[in-house]
Amino acid sequence: MSETPNPQRGAPTTDRDAFGEYERDLRKAERRVAGEIDPGARAVVVAVAVLLAMVSMVLPHTGSATGLEVLTFAPDAAAERVTIVSKIFVYLLTIFGIVVSMLALLTRRWLLAWIALCGCAIACVAGMLAWWSRNTPGVGGVEPPSGVGIGLILAWISVFVLTFHWSRVVWSRSTYHLAIEAERRRQAAEQDAYTSALYRKNPDQP
Q1: Which of 87, 168, 172, 173 is deepest in the core (most CB within 10 A)?
Q2: Which parts of the chain sit beneath pLDDT 50?
């Protein structure tokens, strides 16, 4: 006597395949967003802040010394008695506020955005110290010949704007990534519950 085929026998396998395909799709989406950012409208604000940082480099940071002259240790910067904190600030502004921020904006890589955020945050503190150094007597009571220039003010505002918006971009990416991970854990729990229910219903089925 021939055995009557059971149309329900293939159903569990089909459901398991559907669960597996759904999990693979989630993993692909997670890998895709793991290293990417989506700044959205903030990209325009970041681009403007980077542009202002570049403009500040050609404006006087103190006296007649521009940001580029501070960066290159030009004679005008030495004549203005530019302190080490001002040089550190200009270097941080150039590296993180301009170069790394531009790369992060062009490549949309999360790692570069995170590096830009950390560097700009440090630059905020360095900018405050640079401002303070232009209004504070040095060793022996020698006062700086000039105060804070428009270039230093513009550069400091730029790194504050970059720090704020990079932090928002990095945080929004992290929130989206955590949501995908939570969805994948929920899907895995549902699959385990479904498998356990099938086993309790048919304990002899392999």
Answers
A1: 173
A2: 1-11, 139
Q: How many other C-beta atoms can be found within 10 angstroms of the C-beta atom of residue 189?
A: 10
**144 to each of 17, 87, 132, how far by Cα in Å?**
74, 15, 11
A 10 A CB-CB count for 174 gives 13
Tokens at 140, concatenated: 């022996």
Report domain extents, the chain: 40-166
DSSP state of 62: E
Q: Which amino acid is at 40?
A: G
The reported pTM is 0.70
Running DSSP on this structure, what letter comes out for residue 137? -
**Total length of the chain:** 206
pLDDT per residue over 145-201, tens digit each? Answer: 677 889 999 999 999 999 999 999 888 765 666 666 676 677 767 766 766 666 666
